């Protein structure tokens, strides 16, 4: 066995050679896991807006990450081999890799106030693992690992603190969505916003993150859930997820925040921004009621600033951000898998398309055009549900 572990795996991956260029399918080499690392076979991966943004917005709204890079961070797979000192995983385990670790030992992991574990943080943000190198290479060149994950590859290696072991009957081609988008939106409502029963909510952006936020508002017992999107084609699905009504800002004669304040007689109790645009963030804050309104930002931008009229905060509103929906990742994700298996949480309804890895650029195009909610990329012919 020890011998087998030392073998490099040759497989296919979608490599981003440079920013703003389509991904290219390459033969890559995936090195064996080092100490406290796990090599996994990726079975399925979702394509998240953040993947798109890091590629096409690199150096603009997103900080520049080193290239070449293998993107992908919303996945599920099977443990292939484990490195030295790994005690919690064995080959064959079903797992979800995590872009947010939970080491369980640091000050932040011990605090109930946050999910922001910082284990390996500086390294994973620049695309390398604990020893400062990546396990993926192509044509003799190191290929960086996006957020320490890189799921647009048939195999990858992740730290053992960035991996959740899930139940063996979980369908990997569905639960992959719990690796990012669905967990983020759902948690934005229930963990970060702490949406209450009988409240009113507005969800800006009706992609996977926004639809999951709607699902969270519904589970929390909100009575009025207003979906907001500039693409009217998203409204039907939003209603399926629990939106009571939907509004298109482009079809309003006044700013969307004014429309929402009027619709609710003073503003919504909770607004959730799931777009990633500073202008929408300000509108979301201003659509909440003074005195107790809460605005949660889930949409991602790293270099831009939003404007806040100070009086809006002085009057009692709260502005919060959420990372991975506030879930402590290693323990939260298996519970979300249980919720899906117990039909408390939808996943299948997010999936609008399933494509093989060599069609990955189509998934990006469909997300940009608004034709998809989530495309799931199937990386393996085995282990699909159905
Ligand atoms: P998506 O592209 O599928 O959905 C975005 C939606 O916003 C689309 O339906 C689009 O039509 C809509 N939209 C665009 N401009 C709008 C506007 N001005 N007003 C209203 N709606 C508008 O994206 P997604 O995968 O659902 O991700 C949404 C955001 O969440 C992205 O910014 C992504 O990077 C971010 N994200 C954050 C985290 C986190 O941990 N906080 C995790 C995952 C994703
Ligand atoms: Zn994501
Ligand atoms: Zn920690």
UniProtKB/TrEMBL annotation:
InterPro entries: ADH-like_C (IPR013149), ADH-like_N (IPR013154), ADH_Zn_CS (IPR002328), GroES-like_sf (IPR011032), NAD(P)-bd_dom_sf (IPR036291). SUPFAM superfamilies: GroES-like (SSF50129), NAD(P)-binding Rossmann-fold domains (SSF51735). The keyword Manganese does not apply. Residues 36-166 form the Alcohol dehydrogenase-like N-terminal domain. Keywords: Metal-binding, NAD, Oxidoreductase, Zinc. GO terms for cellular component: cytosol. The keyword Oxidoreductase applies. Its cofactor is Zn(2+). One of its GO terms (molecular function) is zinc ion binding. Residues 208-334 form the Alcohol dehydrogenase-like C-terminal domain. GO terms for biological process: formaldehyde catabolic process. Pfam families: ADH_N, ADH_zinc_N. PANTHER family: ALCOHOL DEHYDROGENASE, S-(HYDROXYMETHYL)GLUTATHIONE DEHYDROGENASE. Alcohol dehydrogenase. Catalyzes the NAD-dependent oxidation of primary alcohols to the corresponding aldehydes. Oxidizes secondary alcohols to the corresponding ketones. Belongs to the zinc-containing alcohol dehydrogenase family. Class-V subfamily. This is Alcohol dehydrogenase 6. It comes from Sander lucioperca (Pike-perch). The gene is LOC116052906.
């Amino acid at each position: 066995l020890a011998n087998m572990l030392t073998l490099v795996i040759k497989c296919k991956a979608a490599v981003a050679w440079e920013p703003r260029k389509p991904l290219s399918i390459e033969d890559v080499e995936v090195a064996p896991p080092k100490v406290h690392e796990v090599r996994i076979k990726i079975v399925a991966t979702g394509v998240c807006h953040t993947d798109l943004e890091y590629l096409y917005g690199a150096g603009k709204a997103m900080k520049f990450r080193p290239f070449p890079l293998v993107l992908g961070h919303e996945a599920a797979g099977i443990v292939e081999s484990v490195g030295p000192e790994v005690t919690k995983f064995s080959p064959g385990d079903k797992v979800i890799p995590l872009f947010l670790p939970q080491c369980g030992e640091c000050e932040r992991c011990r605090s109930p106030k946050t999910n922001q574990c910082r284990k390996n943080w500086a390294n994973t943000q620049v695309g390398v693992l604990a020893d400062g190198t990546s396990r993926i290479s192509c044509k003799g060149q190191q290929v960086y690992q996006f957020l320490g994950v890189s799921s647009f590859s048939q195999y990858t290696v992740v730290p053992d603190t960035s991996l959740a072991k899930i139940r063996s009957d979980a369908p990997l081609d569905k639960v992959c969505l719990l690796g990012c988008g669905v967990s983020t939106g759902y948690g934005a409502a229930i963990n970060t916003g702490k949406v209450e029963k009988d409240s009113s909510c507005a969800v800006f952006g009706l992609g996977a993150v926004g639809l999951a936020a709607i699902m969270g508002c519904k589970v929390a017992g909100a009575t009025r859930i207003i979906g907001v999107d500039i693409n009217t084609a998203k409204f039907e699905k939003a209603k399926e997820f629990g939106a009571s009504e939907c509004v298109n800002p482009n079809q309003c004669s006044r700013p969307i925040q004014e429309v929402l304040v009027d619709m609710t007689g003073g503003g919504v109790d909770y607004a959730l921004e799931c777009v990633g645009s500073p202008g929408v963030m300000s509108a979301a804050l201003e659509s909440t009621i003074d005195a107790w309104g809460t605005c949660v930002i889930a949409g991602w931008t790293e270099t831009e600033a939003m404007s806040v009229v100070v009086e809006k905060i002085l009057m009692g509103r709260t502005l919060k951000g959420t990372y991975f929906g506030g879930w402590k990742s290693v323990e939260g994700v298996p519970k979300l898998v249980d919720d899906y298996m117990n039909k408390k949480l939808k996943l299948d309804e997010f999936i609008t398309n399933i494509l093989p890895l060599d069609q990955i650029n189509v998934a990006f195009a469909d997300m940009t055009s608004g034709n998809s909610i989530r495309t799931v990329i199937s990386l393996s012919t085995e282990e699909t549900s159905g």
